[in-house]
Amino acid sequence: EVQLVESGGGLVQPGGSLRLACAASGFTFNDYEMNWVRRAPGKGLEWIAYINTVASTKRYADSVKGRFTISRDNAKNSVSLYMHSLRGEDTAVYYCVREGNLRDFDFWGQGTLVTVSS
Amino acid sequence: SYVLTQPPSVSVAPGMAASITCAGDNIERKGVNWYQQKPGQAPVLVIYYDSDRPSGIPERFSGSNSGNTATLTVSRVEAGDEADYYCQVWDSISAHQVFGGGTKLTVL
């Protein structure tokens, strides 16, 4: 059974930093590209970051580019999101998502809540 | 950047069919994926590549894509189908994934 389990969310002050982690199991992790998607309160889904299977290609939404960094460790079946210079508008549930062969998001973690507030 | 437009809400009586649209420039040239998200839960893929269903998704869920509009149809709607629905495409020009704004399906 495919499982994606996020951790690391919490309350952080504006301008602060946070690292989210996602532990993957139930599939051959290094065969799949991975993404982070978030949903802010009262808003819709927003794709924010992508990493390919060997971590040679990373892409970011304009809203987080330069502040967030995605990485992966294929030996540990994990993907991370390092978030810096956090703002109130970064408050959201963050989902770790597996990308399927047709650019779809075929499996999602349960999400971790990040709250940016003083 | 590529924009996907969905109606904010759709309402339907139980047993009837609900159609949720997703508009985008020449969207028929892209593969459209659809997700269902219920309150407090993670999104679930219900349609991929315009009209294919992942295993475990009921046949009541179907998709189509033509011209500038993709459509998700839920036939014989049940109370349990009440959720937010999102369309999504890969924009090759920006190399970004794009979501529509989402549609809240209400079962009357």
- How far is the N terminus from the C terminus of chain A? 40 Å
The count of β-strands of chain B is 9
Computed Rg of chain A? 13 Å
Instruction: Give the termini separation of chain B.
Output: 36 Å
Beta strand % of chain A: over 45%
Return the structural class of chain A: mainly beta
How would you portray this structure in words?
- The complex is a heterodimer of chains A (118) and B (108).
- Chain A has strands at residues 3-7, 10-12, 18-25, 34-39, 45-51, 58-60, 68-73, 78-83, 92-99, 105-108, 112-116.
- Chain A is globular and about 40 Å long.
- In chain A, the strands form two sheets. In chain A, strands 2, 4, 5, 6, 9, 10 and 11 form a seven-stranded mixed beta sheet that branches. A four-stranded antiparallel beta sheet of chain A has the order 1-3-8-7, with no helix packed on it.
- Chain A is mainly β.
- In chain A, 39% of the residues are buried.
- Chain B is mostly beta strands and 108 residues long.
- Helix content of chain B is 0%, strand content 45%.
- Chain B has no helices and nine strands.
- Chain B has strands at residues 9-12, 18-23, 33-37, 44-47, 61-66, 69-74, 83-91, 96-99, 103-107.
- In chain B, the strands form two sheets. In chain B, strands 1, 3, 4, 7, 8 and 9 form a six-stranded mixed beta sheet that branches. In chain B, strands 2-6-5 form a three-stranded antiparallel beta sheet, with no helix packed on it.
- The N and C termini of chain B lie far apart (36 Å).
- Chains A and B meet through strand 4, strand 5 and strand 10 of A and strand 3, strand 7 and strand 8 of B.
Topology overview:
The complex is a heterodimer of chains A (118) and B (108).
Chain A: E1 3-7, E2 10-12, E3 18-25, E4 34-39, E5 45-51, E6 58-60, E7 68-73, E8 78-83, E9 92-99, E10 105-108, E11 112-116
Parallel strand pairs in A: 2-11
Antiparallel strand pairs in A: 1-3, 3-8, 4-5, 4-9, 5-6, 7-8, 9-10, 9-11
Chain B: E1 9-12, E2 18-23, E3 33-37, E4 44-47, E5 61-66, E6 69-74, E7 83-91, E8 96-99, E9 103-107
Parallel strand pairs in B: 1-9
Antiparallel strand pairs in B: 2-6, 3-4, 3-7, 5-6, 7-8, 7-9
